[in-house]
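Good morning N.,

You mentioned wanting to compare the apo and holo forms, so I went ahead and generated the holo version with flavin-adenine dinucleotide. This is what I fed in:
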Amino acid sequence: CKLYEDVADLPKLHYDFVVVGGGTAGNVVANRLTEDANITVLVLEAGLSNTGVAASEVPFLLSELIPDTTYSWNYTTVPMPGLDGRSVPYYRAYFLGGCSAHNGMVYTRGAAGDFNRYANLTGDEGWSWDQILPYFLKSEKWSPPADHHDTDGQYNSTVHGTDGPISVSLNGFAWSTFEDKVIQTTKELPDDFPFNLDMNSGQPLGISWLQSTIGNGERSSSATGYLAPKFIKRSNLDVLLHAQVSRLVNETKADGKPAFKGVEFKYGDSLFVVKASKEIILSAGPVGTPQILMNSGIGAHSALKALGIPTVLDLPSVGQNASDHPSFYAMQWEVNSDDTFASITGNATRYAEGLAQWNASAKHTGPFVDSGVGTHIGYLRLPADSPAFVAHADPSAGPDAPHLEFTFLPGGYGTAGQNLMTIDIAVVSPVSRGSVVINSSDPFAPPLIDPGYLSSDFDVFALLDGISMAQRFVSAPAWDGYIGAMTTNLTGLNDVELAAFIRETTGSSYHLVGTAGMSASDASYGVVDPDLQVKGMSGLSVIDASVVPIVPAAHTAAVTYAFAERGADLVKQRWSLST
Ligand SMILES: Cc1cc2nc3c(=O)[nH]c(=O)nc-3n(C[C@H](O)[C@H](O)[C@H](O)COP(=O)(O)OP(=O)(O)OC[C@H]3O[C@@H](n4cnc5c(N)ncnc54)[C@H](O)[C@@H]3O)c2cc1C
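and this is what came out, ligand included:
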């Protein structure tokens, strides 16, 4: 096996490419580069092995995986003024596969406008929707749902890939009572909530069936897909676990620019240096990547100087421009049905039966084949006369891009056994921005994570509209006799009280991007050029979610896969590698 748990087993400390972080993007890069048998690649992953971690395999065990565990870095944000001074937990995965191995598995790509805006911003048409779509397809293997139900009318096969490493499917266990009502609402209120056959066509507006990175009822991650046995056995690919990179070292000059030839990492209590003769690729994610850049002297000179870190390159945008989706979870109602997630989560016998059913066959079946995140997703625009547009000009990527995401689930966050339904609301076109910076010269000290939630009033107004729109959704006749009281009664509150409640309760979607954002080659801001090389450096690239300059109107894993696929192609072109 080329997956090493012990540094003493690593065959060498000199490779052509060193990829820092075996996460969502890093494993894509490692896989694609090693298609050329003549080059060598090492992946350094700080975290643990994903092998045998049941909660990362069985989709419905998600809720056991996400809270603070040994598989998470267990960060907490700084106190945020927009959240009434609250800090919130900030989960990032600490095992092979990165966040793709512990996320909610929701598969969404965003609006065509998101990518066309990236192309405009960078001056590189390669990031436009038309040119990035082939990379979405390249990473994807559309798969039948675990229950093999008839999926006609639930997705559009022409916008999906069939041969990629990441399985994507519709839910494989029906919650029919609830699902029928969601679809019925799209018929009763079609102007406000139209049905959309497939939100992943680049035209996401409307209500679509949920798609997830699941195949055969199992989670599909960058570890199970891009590092599947047939890839990890390549003689030119090595992966080392438990190796936390501190900084880049062996500074030199190449093409008149600063360059690093070595990567320093900690294994156990010792530091090691591995050499990269061609390129170092940072794929440590939107928290880890800016941290390593700053530890290495790449960042705002004033901040580095204050910490006593010698500046290699003054690049003030490192760690800035962070964007993420704030999430509001309180739109929750009691329901007059026991066809809800609580029928499993609130009943130890049915829970054990469901897990046993999943384990009973290699072709998994039963309620544990799905994530339990929801049944449908809605992407919606604010009304044209929304007060949000007084607070700020429309931040969405265009008329086909949403401001809000609704996730519909026959469950909720109540007491065990309580039959609930929820509409989770996220602002997917936030104006607020934050940062991830270091505040210590100790490279292993956790960075300061500030997603900046609700620092712009636009985002609060958008949630206020979202609350009314969710109430309108459940006012459709479809819900008569089914829906009961809200678990927190928001109906009597005025907008000022509601806004206060939003600030008290809003949390994270964990969709952080932008902390090593790309910009045009001649821009006076940004961290990487459109080819993902760090501006002003030689032999150093960033390929992960941190290069995405503005958070897309989507959960960010699919976008990360597509960016990593194109990023790997750009590296291959640069070094004339075979494909
Ligand atoms: C709780 C949660 C739920 C989410 N749900 C969804 C969802 O349902 N759908 C969706 O599309 N997106 C979801 N996301 C977001 C999505 O998963 C991420 O945007 C995406 O996976 C980021 O990929 P990445 O490669 O940039 O970073 P990561 O996948 O985080 O990879 C970074 C890797 O680098 C490693 N690393 C970090 N620092 C170092 C270091 N110093 N040395 C060595 N290794 C290091 C980390 O351990 C990690 O393995 C979720 C995220 C979280 C946290």
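Residues 255 and 538 are 7 Å apart (CA to CA).

Happy to go through it together on a call whenever suits you.

Best,
F.
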